[in-house]
Amino acid sequence: MKKTLVISGATKGIGKEIAYRFAKEGINVAFTYNSNEEIAKKIATDLENKFGIKSRCYPLNILEPNEYKELFKKIDEDFESVDYFVSNAIISGRSVVGGFAPFMRLKPKGLNNIYTATVLAFVVGAQEAAKRMEKVGGGSIVSLSSTGNLVYTPNYSGHGNSKNAVETMVKYAAQELGEKGIRVNAVSGGPIDTDALKAFPNYEEVKNEVCKRSPLNRMGNANDLSGMVYFLTTPECGWLTGQTIVIDGGTSFK
Ligand SMILES: NC(=O)c1ccc[n+]([C@@H]2O[C@H](COP(=O)([O-])OP(=O)(O)OC[C@H]3O[C@@H](n4cnc5c(N)ncnc54)[C@H](OP(=O)(O)O)[C@@H]3O)[C@@H](O)[C@H]2O)c1
C-alpha cells in the first residue's frame, strides 16, 4: 500500500517542491490550496501522470485552523492512511498588514493572524494527522520554519516570533507523540527565492544581502529545503525528533 503525505499550501514555492519530492518517491499526495484552485487541480493531475501516485487537492484557510477537522475527514474518504504531515502554508498580503511591519507599526491583529497561520494551524493540523498516524503505527510530522528568528530581517518580527513559537510547539509535540511512533521536527530555511519573498518590498536588497552573507554566494531555492523535509520522514531519521534543521547557506553565523 502506498503511503500518503498531507501538506498545506502546495500550489507554489516550497510546498509545491515538497509535493513533487514525495511523489517522486511513490508517495500519494493530499495537498491544500487557498486562492489558486485551478493551479492546484493541474498540479494534482500532473503528479498523478508523472509519478503514478494518487493526488487530490482541497481548499483550506489556515486563518481558520479548525477547517483542518473537516479537511481530514475528506482525506479519510480519498486515502487509506495518513503517514506524513507537513505544515507549510503561510499567509501574505492583506492578512499580514500590521504583522509584517517595522516594530513601531506592529498591530495586534496582523501579529495574531501570523500566529494563527503559523502556530495554531500547525497544532490543529498535526493533531488531526497524529490521530490517523497512530492507527498505522506511526508517522512523521514536519513544520516549515525560517531563520527570521535567528537573523534580524526588516519587517519580519511577526513571522520570526511565530516561527520561534512553532519550533517550540514542535518540541512539545515530539515529546508527547513519540510513544505513538510519531516523530515531529522543523526545517528552518534562510531566505528562499519564492513568491513570498518576492512580495517583500525590499526583495532586491534582501537578495543582495543573502548572496553577500552566504559563503555559497547565492539565495536558497525551494529544492534546497524539500530534500531535507523528505529525509526527515525516512527510517534513516528514525531517532531524530523534536529538532529544527537549519538550511540557510551559512547565512545565520555572520
Ligand atoms: N520563502 C522563504 O524565504 C522561506 C524561507 C524559509 C521558510 N519559509 C517557509 O516555507 C513555507 C512556504 O513558504 P513559500 O515561500 O513557499 O510561500 P508561498 O510561495 O507564498 O506559498 C504559500 C502557500 O500557502 C498557501 N496559502 C496562502 N494563504 C493561505 C491561507 N490563508 N490558508 C491556507 N493556505 C494559504 C498558498 O496557496 P494559494 O496559492 O492557493 O493561495 C500557497 O500554496 C512557509 O511556512 C514559510 O514561512 C519560507
Furnish the topology, listing elements before pairings:
Elements: E1 4-7, H1 13-24, E2 28-33, H2 37-51, E3 55-59, H3 67-78, E4 84-87, H4 108-135, E5 139-146, H5 157-177, E6 182-189, H6 195-198, H7 203-213, H8 223-232, E7 244-247
Parallel strand pairs: 1-2, 1-4, 2-3, 4-5, 5-6, 6-7
Helix pairs in contact: 1-2, 1-8, 4-5
The protein binds NADP nicotinamide-adenine-dinucleotide phosphate (NAP).
Structure characterization notes:
The protein is of the alpha/beta class and 254 residues long. The protein has a single domain (4-247), classed as Rossmann fold (3-Layer(aba) Sandwich). Helices cover 44% and strands 15% of the residues. The protein is built from eight helices and seven strands, in the order βαβαβαβαβαβαααβ. The protein has helices at residues 13-24, 37-51, 67-78, 108-135, 157-177, 195-198, 203-213, 223-232, and strands at 4-7, 28-33, 55-59, 84-87, 139-146, 182-189, 244-247. It has a seven-stranded parallel β-sheet with strand order 3-2-1-4-5-6-7, sandwiched between helices. Helix 5 (157-177) links the parallel strand 5 and strand 6. Helix 1 packs across helix 8. It binds NADP nicotinamide-adenine-dinucleotide phosphate.
